[in-house]
Amino acid sequence: xxxxxxxxxxxxxxxxxxxxxxxxxxxxxxxxxxxxxxxxxxxxxxxxxxxxxxxxxxxxxxxxxxxxxxxxxxxxxxxxxxxxxxxxxxxxxxxxxxxxxxxxxxxxxxxxxxxxxxxxxxxxxxxx
Length: 128
Prior knowledge:
Blueprint: E1 2-4, E2 19-22, E3 25-31, H1 46-63, E4 71-78, H2 81-93, E5 103-108, E6 118-125
Parallel strand pairs: 4-5
Antiparallel strand pairs: 1-2, 2-3, 3-6, 4-6
Helix pairs in contact: 1-2
């Protein structure tokens, strides 16, 4: 098992690794919608927050030599599910090639760190 912290990655909001790798499967910790340059500073709106979360996930994957094309599963947590689901989906879909969408779960939650609107974690597979 390997525990990864990506040098230019987002600042963790709690005690965890950016990712943990087991036999080529990479579990990427849920990312928040802040930026490495401004921890805890969130943009307004679900679209901007979704873009920031995806940028943070891409940074972590890139730091491990992977990309979104290696993602097998995504879990999305939305604080305002009914209000934000459709807009989040519009932004999220643009990060994956047509016909190459990962498996996914999306759930509504009562709260997230930094009072964020969204958090996403991933499971990726290293190519053999």
